[in-house]
Batch of 2 targets.
Target 1
Amino acid sequence: SQQGEEDPQALSIQEGENATMNCSYKTSINNLQWYRQNSGRGLVHLILIRSNEREKHSGRLRVTLDTSKKSSSLLITASRAADTASYFCATDAGNQGGKLIFGQGTELSVKP
Amino acid sequence: DAGVIQSPRHEVTEMGQEVTLRCKPISGHDYLFWYRQTMMRGLELLIYFNNNVPIDDSGMPEDRFSAKMPNASFSTLKIQPSEPRDSAVYFCASSPRAWQPQHFGDGTRLSIL
């Protein structure tokens, strides 16, 4: 079963608006990662947040992690049409031998 | 940095045929992962290797699927015999160490008629 569950499944916004995607997971983790997938391409790593971190920034991306609620959020500020993609969270699900468990993803559409 | 290289990018074949997907990971990466992605089931981990040794193949759907990693720079995923329900996009990914960011290839889009 999937460790990460993203919410919402799909999100449609206008260019310039902020986009927030959420991820919940079930077991304890060492780190949580966010990936982006453009249509027809492989996943691309965006950001990694460790279990002892609460917030991390990278350019227009802001990730928060609440280990007490077993949840994370990805905020994309001032969205652009080029941000249109699917976004996935992935966790190590504790000690699982090096693999990541991916959620089902949020499909983001940014309209110009 | 050439990234993870997968071949072929597209494969269309008839049911019953053998299919071989290929992957060249990033040099120096100790971990290699094979995933399958469909609309219905999302991204599924099939098998992964650490230093060329298979660690977990519990995601391999059935005996028709097999994977090998004969050396650090090459891996194959084979389906024999193929079935229409195997149609999906198959991704290979590599990472330098456990639980570190994975680098994905652009996948092989497989269609079994």
Target 2
Amino acid sequence: GAVVSQHPSWVICKSGTSVKIECRSLDFQATTMFWYRQFPKQSLMLMATSNEGSKATYEQGVEKDKFLINHASLTLSTLTVTSAHPEDSSFYICSARGGTGGNTGELFFGEGSRLTVL
Amino acid sequence: KQEVTQIPAALSVPEGENLVLNCSFTDSAIYNLQWFRQDPGKGLTSLLLIQSSQREQTSGRLNASLDKSSGRSTLYIAASQPGDSATYLCAVRYNNNDMRFGAGTRLTVKP
């Protein structure tokens, strides 16, 4: 299957700082990327959908000024957690659709990024 | 409301057993359904993708079926192995492009 790379895999930061997470589709062009948050032993919670070259669409309850998403190219989307606080600590996962998935719409996921805010 | 439910929430079986994981969805206007595997602290690995026009897909010891009319999909795992231990999630993509994930089934295969 297609490969989606997420970086960093884990990050620890101080409260009030900003953290950027990258999501790259390595062998295909991702027209749409998704960002999720996952709490322990729970399923994925969709945060936002981003299409290349346009503004992200945020799910209800997700602060767009808090979680900045940029999808500047067909192979890269970034999630920036601004002014992070301990309650932002979570596992963040991205997924991408397109490219080798063709019109099948298959979704490929990154390995996830664990954020810990002290 | 588009909901996806997975039953059971957890399952423990001895090695070698065949097993079935269930996924049900409330809206039959689906575009496709995808089964994933998630290991602890990791992302999701795609196992099988079934388009709305298909009835089943097979990959190795895995077989996934889709019955849109009854709103159900099953993931069949043959001859289970300890390495199959993981959480299995189904995700439904609807015609309006919304995607809904089930809460997952946590599978443990005991040696």
